[in-house]
Specification:
This protein is an alpha/beta fold and 171 residues long. Helix content is 33%, strand content 22%. It has six helices and seven strands. It has a five-stranded mixed sheet with strand order 2-1-3-4-5, sandwiched between helices. The protein has a two-stranded antiparallel ribbon with strand order 6-7. A hairpin with a 2-residue loop joins strand 6 (158-161) and strand 7 (164-167). The two termini are 17 Å apart.
């Protein structure tokens, strides 16, 4: 089996790709609080189309440095709020990928937005948001960072030169 067949056999799941994408969008966050570079991606139910993205920061019209850096009152919109504000709420059964478990307010907004599944990475300071998701029959699943290592390992095998992906050997 050649290296290309090996890589194709290791195709990352869509869940892994979308969570990795959410992590990347989180890097645009302007929140000053430590460990609060939160990203979100909303997809169709079959996860074949990205419908919206978001990251935490000030609302449109405010300066990017307007975060107050205060727990529970930093003034930033949450990543899922930004993503939901840009998506068609009439599309049923959307899937949300968020790099941190949703808070209580965002969980309520998720329920209003016709989202039927939430994947999250890091835990929040309480489980109030998860409780709301459960009460609203919205499935939720914590993805663990070791699940993302498959994609990182795959990316180490690839280099992109002139728009063409070249598969290189490990080692």
């Amino acid at each position: 089996m050649d290296k290309r067949e090996d890589i194709i056999k290791q195709r990352p799941k869509r869940e892994i790709i979308h969570m990795t994408t959410a992590i990347l969008w989180g890097q645009r966050s302007t929140c000053k609080r430590p460990n609060r570079k939160i990203g979100a991606v909303i997809t169709t139910s079959d996860m074949t189309q990205i419908l919206s993205i978001g990251y935490n920061g000030p609302c449109k019209g405010l300066f990017n440095d307007s975060c107050r850096n205060t727990e529970g009152n930093c003034g930033c919109l949450h990543a899922e709020m930004n993503a939901i504000a840009k998506v068609d709420s009439t599309i049923p059964n959307k899937v949300l990928f968020i790099t941190m478990q949703p808070c209580e307010m965002c969980a309520s907004l998720i329920a209003q937005a016709n989202i039927s599944m939430v994947w999250y990475l890091d835990s929040y300071r309480n489980n109030d948001g998860l409780s709301i998701l459960s009460q609203c029959n919205i499935r939720h699943h914590q993805m663990f960072k070791d699940e993302l290592y498959q994609l990182a390992a795959l990316l180490q095998l690839c280099t992109c030169k002139s728009g063409t992906i070249n598969y290189e050997s490990q080692g």
